[in-house]
Amino acid sequence: MFDKILIANRGEIALRVIRACREMGIASVAVHSTADSDAMHVRMADESVCIGPPSSTHSYLSVPAIVAACEITGAQAIHPGYGFLSENAAFVQVLEDHGITFIGPSAAHIRIMGDKITAKETAKSLGIPVVPGSEGGVPDVETAKREAAAMGYPVIIKATAGGGGRGMKVAKDEASLESAFRTARAEAKSAFGNDEVYMEKYLQRPRHIEVQVFGDGKGRGVHLGERDCSLQRRHQKVFEEAPGPSITEEERARIGGICAKAIGELGYAGAGTIEFLYEDGEFYFIEMNTRLQVEHPVTEAIFGVDLVRQQIKVAAGEEMEFEQDKLSIRGHAIEVRINAEKLPNFAPCPGKITHFHAPGGLGVRMDSALYDGYSIPPYYDSLIGKLIVHGRDRHEALQRLNRALGELIVDGIDTTVPLFNALLAEPDIQSGDYSIHWLEKWLEKNL
Length: 447
Hints:
Layout (H helix, E strand, L loop, with lengths): L3 E4 L3 H13 L3 E7 L6 H5 L2 E6 L10 H11 L3 E3 L9 H9 L3 E2 L4 H8 L1 H10 L15 H11 L3 E9 L2 E6 L2 H19 L4 E5 L5 E10 L4 E13 L2 E7 L6 H18 L2 E11 L2 E8 L6 H8 L3 H9 L16 E8 L1 E2 L4 E2 L2 E2 L2 E3 L6 E5 L6 E2 L6 E9 L2 H14 L1 E3 L5 H7 L3 H5 L6 H9 L1
Parallel strand pairs: 1-2, 1-4, 2-3, 4-5
Antiparallel strand pairs: 6-7, 6-8, 9-10, 9-12, 10-11, 11-14, 12-13, 14-21, 15-16, 17-20, 18-22, 19-21
Helix pairs in contact: 4-5, 7-8
């Protein structure tokens, strides 16, 4: 087992990893920019190293600075959290070259799943169902028209190196295809330095379902059910729950079994998430995230497991503790992402926290790096906390979420808490009848 782990991240996820390290008796090293010198993850870690100025490019994304921090402190492994360098194959390769363990999958697996076309081809070869679409990149408008005619409108054009909704456009008919194609390519070039795009059939009212998988790197894989992440704004998740309210036991066993088998055949090590669009009882592969997800706590809640602990154990060469026949779902869990944003436009709202009170009680977990007097810097993602609740069933989880939101106090800035208060009053949310388009339509009418 490792003696010391460096966490190459910030905020609540850095704290999450530090807590797991402390429970395992492992020393932790926090890295931080000058803007984060008074951040909670810096205070909580056993050691800390400043790695650069506020800009992520020159701090949290600086591979030389992070490797140097490892060498200075003697950290044997790096946990990347999510975002930043968590899915950067080149970074993982550098660590391997320096004899530093990356707590996550191999550079090869990150590389395979980091390219959307290669990922789709790999998924298909492993028996994972995929959305009907182009076999590879679509080089020009004429090819796009032929592909669209073959699969039928509407279609969605996506950047092969994309993510977060960038380089992604929908064409409802041939008249709108050329504009959508050119816009998607331009956005992809600007955001990722790669203008290659591909096309898929655009589903009308799908849900976003993701399957949590875990591999031991030696040919064994398991699944830990699914999460429904359909409530999204601009392709960004805001509300996640597990198990999915629309998924039957038979469907869960079927798609989970396919995913676990695929992970084993890949020889994948650690946590990963295979994401799908789900419509009319069918699952269609979107992508695989080769890291811990923001919403991993809902899976931990219903299975009673510690995913970060297992990531560390597998990376250290120890046995994965998961056995498929011993994994069973207990109750229902919901997570809401609380951002420092001002409604109705969701404008970032950094500033000083004059008072913070986290909700508590049975079945309530608050993952946040806030504290009284903390100043949220303007340089990073606006996520400031995740409120997770667990109940015996979905109804109890919703009631608990409503109660916990009422207890949460974040003074000094605006947050997205009012959004969740409003959503909990909606019949569709109460019944679980929503798709990936539901929230955008609701926001147009209500905010």
